[in-house]
Each structure stands twice: as structure tokens, then as C-alpha cells.
Amino acid sequence: xxxxxxxxxxxxYIHIPWCVQKCPxxxxxxxxxxxxxxxxDYIDALLNDLEQDLPRIWGRKVVSVFIGGGTPSLFSxxxxxRLISGIRARLxxxxxxxxxxxxxxxxxxxxxFAEFRSTGINxxxxxxxxxxxxxxxxxxxxxxxxxxxxxxEQAHDAGFDSFNLDLMFGLPGQDLKMAxxxxxxxxxxxxxxxxxxxxxxxxxxxxxxxxxxxxDDDLIWSMQQQGQAAMAKAGFEQYEVSAYAQPNNQCxxxxxYWQFGxxxxxxxxAHGKISDASQQSITRLWKxxxxxxxxxxxxxxxxVGGETLITREEVGLEFxxxxxxxxxxxxxxxxxxxxxxxxxxVESALKKLEQEGLVEWGLHTIKTTxxxxxxxxxxxxxxxxNASKAS
Length: 391
Fold this sequence. Notes:
- This protein has helices at 39-53, 77-90, 113-118, 133-138, 145-157, 176-188, 206-209, 217-233, 252-258, 291-297, 312-323, 332-339, 347-355, 370-374, 376-390, and strands at residues 10-16, 18-19, 31-32, 61-69, 92-103, 123-129, 163-169, 193-198, 237-240, 243-245, 262-267, 271-276, 281-287, 304-309, 330-331, 359-361, 365-368.
- It is an alpha/beta fold.
- The protein has two domains: 10-255, TIM Barrel; 312-390, Arc Repressor Mutant, subunit A (Orthogonal Bundle).
- The longest helix is centred in the middle third of the chain and has 17 residues, at 217-233.
- The two termini are 13 Å apart.
């Protein structure tokens, strides 16, 4: 079916599903902490889950680790140290492996940043969302402006040379000045990476059921352009639709996702994607979603909630819908290495988009044009059409 001569880079995603409280816009697999966290039991479950997956990736090295949630930083430094030590005992991590953990300000874990750093975690992603107290209240966040600023300052003090600040725009009650102040504050805090994305009303969230009044589309567009201009002036390069970084500070873990790399997923509801050269196949799999059920199944194959093979027809679509989000596009050789297919598999769609001025196809690289980036949904639709015709 495929022709893998080598395998894509491999990452590890770890899901810790508990939060202090569920935010009204969040559609992730997260659960309010009601009776405390069974952190030792959950660390045991994660390591048992990982052992179930080891035969899928024997001999392969891991280029990045991402601990997401939920709020992983609610776990104690001791528990996370045991987790990372257990991972190192079971997997080959490259020497400069990027190990990221999500953290939220406004809780006592901010004071633990130095201890988190000593476990081997070398990058943080801090969920700020806004520096405006009123906006944070409307978002259901438990922190305020002071806590958000303190979190960034303590990340610096703890020795995190690289950390990300998450910001949203298009918030209830937000105007252009408020959005500008959020970006300016983030820049002043000297983070090397910013995520800047629009608030959306996702299904199965409180905001979707009871939508707040949001700024109109023209105002939201002005917020985005204004923020992008401010970040560019401060030296941030936009390298993906919602990701901005100082030179050489891009998130390697996310780039591996966007370039259709492989990843193991452990934890309640975690997803994985694994290529297999011996079977010439690509498998997607996911773990059972409910934390209680996950804890009971983690030591057995029943921890896998489901799995499916990606077809030859689906691969081109899945690669392009991610890789074309990258500002610089991708090397044509990466397509063959990461999909096991020649670029001719998507050639008809690429040529059509090139004729429309939405894609540039150079000698070695393919990327969306400025106009193509604005109409990325239309660009992806061409590969969906291409996949439908091929199936």
C-alpha cells in the first residue's frame, strides 16, 4: 500500500485530564477535580499504557514529548519526575529532546516551576488567554492579570529559556484596544513563542449552548491584523496559522504534527498515529476517554478505545491539511518520507491550486501563497475532492 524507506520522526503525547474547573469554551477531554487527584495511580497507568504501545515503535527515537491536559501542572513535581524517569527508562529520547508541559497561572503550581524544570521539562506552554481581568472572568478563568504576569516571570526565573504564552482574541466584550494591550503585555514578558488564535464556539461546550456576544467579524479581523503587526515588529515570525516565534524557537512537537510525523498518545482519550515499515501501513489509535475507565484498563490491551488504518486515498488529504498550515510550506521530499507515497499522489489537486494562485510549487518546496493562506479551507477542500475521486 505504502512504500516507507524510512519512518517519520516520532513524538510522545501524554494527556492528564484534570483541571481546577472546566472552562466554558473548552472542548478538550478535561474533567473538574472533585475528590483530589489520584496522581500516583495515574502515573502508574500512563507507564503501563506506554508499555502496551512499545512493540509498535521498537528501536525508534523520540524527538519531542508534550504533556497536555487538562492542567498537567496540578501534578506534583515528584509525580512528574517519576513519569519522565519512567519514560526515559522505556524510550530512547534524543539528546536535545523537547519536553513541554502545559501550565495554567492562578494556582499554587506556579511556585513549582523551578522543581518542574529539575525533572527534565525544558519548555512550558502557559494558558494565559488574556491579561484583562474582565475578559478572564467572562472566559471562566480562575486567574487574573497579576497571576498571569507572575507565571511568565517565574518561568524566566526557573530557567525556562523557551516557553509559550497562549492568547486568544475575539473575546466577549473585547475591543481593539484591549486586544492590543494583551499582545503588548505578552511581548513585554519576553516569551520566545506566542500562540494567538480566535475564540471559537466548539460543540459540546457551555459557550456553544449559551453563546456570549462576540465582536463582529470586521473587528475580529482588525484584532488579528493588529496583533500580527505588533508581533512582527517585535521580531516574532509567524510560522503557522496561530503560532509565532522568535528565530529558532518554534515548537518542534507541533511542527512534527503539522508535517505528518508519528506520535504515540498515552493517557485518557489520547490519540496516536504510527507508521509501520514492516506492514507498510499507517494506523491511528486512541485510548479510552473516561479517566476512571482508563485507570482500570491501562495494564491491558483494552486501554485502546479504537484503531483504524489510514488509506492511501486519505493520506494526501491528511498531510496537506496540516503541512499547508505552515508558512514556509514543506520540502517535497518530506511528503514521500512521511507518507510513504510519491508527490504525484496529490499532483492533480496541487496543479489546480497552483493555477488558481493559491499554492506555489517550487523546485524543492510547496507552500500556500498569501492568498491561499487566507482561503486555507478552500485549499484543503481540493485535496478532499481529490481523495474522494481516488477512493
